[in-house]
Specification:
30% of the residues lie in helices and 36% in strands. It is of the alpha+beta class. A two-stranded antiparallel ribbon has the order 1-2. A hairpin with a 2-residue loop joins strand 1 and strand 2. The protein is elongated, with a radius of gyration of 11 Å. This is Transposase.
Length: 44
């Protein structure tokens, strides 16, 4: 998996979360998919 840094801004209610993440060299999922899955899980 390619090593990359990403930052995301997600608004939940009146709060905006800004998250910076770094892709692990041994990651099995793309970082975008993992983060979106985490946010979806926390909101529901």
């Amino acid at each position: 998996m390619e090593n990359q840094n990403s930052s995301y801004s997600v608004q939940i209610g009146k709060t905006t979360f800004i998250v910076c993440v770094k892709q692990s060299e041994t990651a099995k999922k793309p970082i975008e998919k993992m983060f979106k899955d985490m946010c979806r899980h926390e909101v529901t």
